[in-house]
Amino acid sequence: MVKNLILFFLGLLFWVGIFIVFFRVLLYFQGIEAIGDILAAKLLSMVFLCLFSILIFSNIVTALSTYFLSDDLGAIISYPISFGEIYFSRFIETIVNSSWMVLFFGFPVFLAYGMVYQPGPSYYLMLIAVLIPFFLTPAGIGSIMTLLLVTLLPARRLKDILILLSISLFVALYIFFRLLQPERLVDPEAFSGLMDYIASLQAPASPFLPSQWAVDCLSPILLGGKSNLFFLGLLWITGLAILAIGEEIFSRMYFEAWSKSQEAKTAKISRSKFVNSMLNFFVRPFSPTTQALLIKDLKVFFRDTHQWPQLFLIIALIAIYLYNFRVLSLDKSPLPTFYLQNLVSFLNLGLAGFVLAAVAVRFSFPAVSMEGKSFWIIRSAPLELKGFVQTKFWMNFFFLFILAEILTIYSNYLLNATRFMMILSAVTIGLMTFGITSLGIGLGAYFPRFKVANVAQIPTGFGGVVYMILAMGFIGLIVILEARPVYILFMARLKMASLTFWEFLEIVLSFLGVGVINVLAFFLPLKFGMEKLSRIEDI
Amino acid sequence: MIILNELTKKFGELTAVDRLNLTVSSGELFGFVGPNGAGKTTTLRMMAGVLKPTSGRIIIDNKDLAENPLECKKIIGFIPDNPFLYEKLTGRETLHFIAGIYKLPQDGLEKRIEHLFELFEIDSWRDELIESYSHGMKQRLVMASTLIHQPKVIIVDEPMVGLDPKATKMVKGIFRSLCQRGITIFMSTHTLQIAEEMCDRIGIINQGKLIALGTMKELREMSGLPAKELEAVFFRLTGEENDIRIPRILETY
Lengths: 539, 253
Fold this sequence. Notes:
The structure holds 2 protein chains of 2 kinds. Chain A folds into 2 domains: 40-100 and 128-261, no CATH class; 289-535, no CATH class. Chain A is built from 18 helices and no strands. By secondary structure, chain A is mostly helical. Chain B is of the alpha/beta class. The longest helix of chain B has 16 residues, at 165-180. The mean pLDDT of chain B is 88.
């Protein structure tokens, strides 16, 4: 009950956050003369296009599960039910599963438009009338595409490919969007001619897509006019037509596609000898048991395609993170550059810590749970749980430490931070990595989820939330404790004065506090995690 | 070789295993039978060191499992009822992994692994990912992984589930051969015919309690059915002989 409440409130927080951001952006647009409404329409167009793209991919992946991979399908197909009936019943399941989250987190955007432009109840009625066919169309397209793809590729491999493709597309779109520097859209000075600028805004990006038709239905109402029912008709006709076409296609081809999906998946051959030799070489310094655990964990990790989307996303986010430092124009700030560089460098410590925590919740927290139902092998082996957990810790620490130092040192290099800040940041983030990793592995052992089919779901539970709260608290505490001594040292340098006795004592006590917290954060989670893990009976 | 002394396991209010006492000698193939939910799997998991008893002792080769868990586990091979393995490893990698955690020397290991693949007739699949194995093949791979460290005691839960007749015959032959070499096998099974065919002695457990123990001859005498097969003896001893629910239900069908 408590877990569900916490998750509910987090979701609500995110929902409110989206609403606030869009509300403020739209208010800002409303204040821009001549082009403000055009900008708002352009933004709505981008939102609908984005939603449409997400819905297409989401429906393809969901349709694959509901039409081909669901466990009950074998029984259902044996019943006297037509394939058309199966199509419709599963269609409802597909559209609900693929669309509810898009609708939930998209609705605050539409609400923000309603609150800013205050068009009256007709806007909301039109919104319902638009959204129904808007969700129908990608669901129908997704289902048909899935059917066609399954006839060409094995269903089980197809799921992995589609997930990777969708994440790759998302990552590419995200990087592309960031590199476009969309903030330039609100800076007309970036364009040589005003007419060029307005023309570029007014042109619809995709006139033949349902996303643009949805905008063409809603925009006139938002601006106080009447809706263009032609586009509403177009949306409904398209949605219903695709539904009917889908039913016809499924009636003819579903059984053949279903039979193909039951074929055994292609077995993979062993990895190359070169990779195995490399692995054996790197683990050689360790004991035989540790070697076995490390090799097993690395192979399972890199072969599990559920992990790849997260890896891609993390790489993209880190690239954007570092890119932001590259384009940060500190010289345009009214504050002294030296002060600002080092202030940002210090705050970067917290940011890097948060990035590390976000990575750890995805990879370190699930480390113990990734044993899955095979955990009985570990429990029945002559292997101390302590050694098992410690191996998990050091393996994760190694990768997180490298990431932490790269993030911190490179971002400080881009900021031209002082040598003192470079060293302080590198040492602090290095020490924090112990605590962040320990919290991940320890809490992962304390809240294991061995029966989850998809490892990507492990961090989304109650234990993952607890981890993030504690990790954020730990990082925040370290940053706060170090803030005072760093401030004292910089002020002393700026004033070219030496430290007083009390200032020196304050610095020593602060760093001592940092040390104590790091030690506690390292030992306690692992200790409690191991104790809890040894008591688990339901394996 | 195996001594269970007042072994008890409770899950909250439920007593899954109730003061179990029995001894299994070296080289014996002991069958552990009982209805669903009788406490068989719970007993076997406690013996394998996967589950902690509420009370009582488990002695393996004169060592207390609670006091010397690592020493005992070194000589135990456990085959669970559900052969969950690391799906993203190949068969060969799995055996290497098991060999690693049992700290087996590298000398002769590769040859031993090949021999086990041939023994269980899964050599053509040794370099394929386990996710492509059928249930029966996984079961065979688990058995191979259990033998790699040459245990003195094998604890096996429902070994024949998912095996085809050929594989069943193969496993029976392997188990008998291992017992002849002095290895002790403690096996639970639903299939009474298999217990009757294979086992030197049989223990019948019901609702957590050991209600009968002995050779087939002794069990027949105990039940008062000297000429009957184990099934009839089993139903007599577990009190399920006169179950008339099925005819009553079918009357209204």
